[in-house]
Amino acid sequence: MRITHTSRFRQLWQAGRLSAVLLVPAATLLQGCTDLEETPTSAITPNNFFKNSDEVIGGVASVYAALRSTMWGYYNLSQVSTDENVVPTRGSDWFDNGRWLDLYRHTWTPTSGSGLEDISGVWNDLFGGVARANVVLSALETTDVPNKATIVAEMKALRAFYYYLLMDFFGGVPIVTTTEVKPREQATRAEVFAFIEKELTEARAALPDAWPAENFGRVTKGATDAILANMYLNAQVFTGTVTATSGLTRGTAKWTEAITAADRVLNSGRYRLNSDWRANFNATNENSPENIFTVRHSTRVPGIGLTFVMRMGHYNSFAASPWNGFATLAETYNAFDNADDRKKVFLVGPQVDLLTGRPVTDRAGNPLVFTPEIRDLSQATEGEGARIYKYTVDPNFNGGDNGNDYVYFRLAEMMMIKAEAQNELGQTAAAVQLVNQIRARAFTPAKPLPANISQTDLRQAIFSERLYEFIGEAKRRQDMIRAGTYTNARFGKAASSPFRILMPIPQNQIETNPLLTQNPGY
Description:
Blueprint: H1 6-14, H2 23-28, H3 53-65, H4 73-80, H5 99-105, H6 113-140, H7 148-170, H8 189-204, H9 221-233, H10 235-238, E1 241-243, E2 247-249, H11 255-266, E3 291-295, H12 308-312, H13 330-334, E4 346-347, E5 349-350, E6 369-370, E7 387-388, E8 406-410, H14 411-424, H15 428-442, H16 455-470, H17 476-483, H18 507-512
Antiparallel strand pairs: 1-2, 3-8, 4-7, 5-6
């Protein structure tokens, strides 16, 4: 299937046309979507917009553009609440009223700084995406455009993805499919799971296998299958219940369904492992045959580029003057085999300019050295902490913006999902073969797992392998929750209460919508 006006879509998307489309509806059409920074003087609604194909494509672009907001709140919380990232206080930098250490230590509350800003921000970002999709879908009920069925499916799949992220963080949330302004009752987490599953399954039939090259990043059949495979992998968590005292009571496993969804991607012929795994994350990664569903970024317009390199890089790492914030733990860095090529994502030791290769200094003029160890999270030095450098700097950076597209799902994960599900079903021999295909790309000479590995040992090996393969990709929180390790003690963090596998519903959201019920334990 091919939609018309593809070049217009690309222009709107890359130009970041957000303020002209749907910012007011994102704030007003969903009860609880508050605190959006921009307030245009006039509202754009289905009644006064979307009268032709060009306007509809502009609306579609805005729903995709909202995905970029997940690169701050959703990504940061997914990373910093695990053992992959920590944001130590460095002198007067990165304290921010304790927000970052609050997230790392799992001490957030519905009314803490991190709760009212970071966690509430995620709620707003994701429901903002839902609202934008709902406005476009509402408009399409009375507007005829070419390939209308495909656009409807696309919007429903994107709305389902925003709900997938909401379900991941908050559990049960209101399910909103109209633009009517009213308070909404909360669905259970299992009900949200069922809604997402139904929407993705139905949308899949009308979506293309691939889009023309200029529309790279739009939702495809493969993207819906990847989301479903991930949901089924985590089904015991997503359909389970959480209590304040005992934490998670697991729901029904969906291992067979996970294999079926992953196989639709693996057997589609659309994707293959990239022989150079680094090419999945560089500034031209739209060309990678491995990437299934990505968030587009650009350096053409300020504010729509990826900023990962800014968060982790030292002030002198390259000309854009990064922020020297995000680091990782020594225990995480040391978990990697020195022979594993994937360990090269870390910056440690004497540092050089990321673009020129020339040695760089710290702010005192001394040679800059990154050390794996962080002695005190509240009093770290400039160089303490290894840095995750997976999304490399774009040579055409624009200020802090880089053109790397963020990868939500890629083929390697479908292989790992299938392997984990096979192992849980007792198909350990088949599972280890898949894991070893991933490892073969990372080790020279090859270092496969033993063919006779036990189911229990392979379960742990898969958990570790997912750290090595997907570090820096916002997968670790889900993995640790599924493995039961998320709330464990680690460096600089005491064991946290088991109910913290769910984020609290921020108090400002409950005050906006009194039909919301706070998650257990908060």
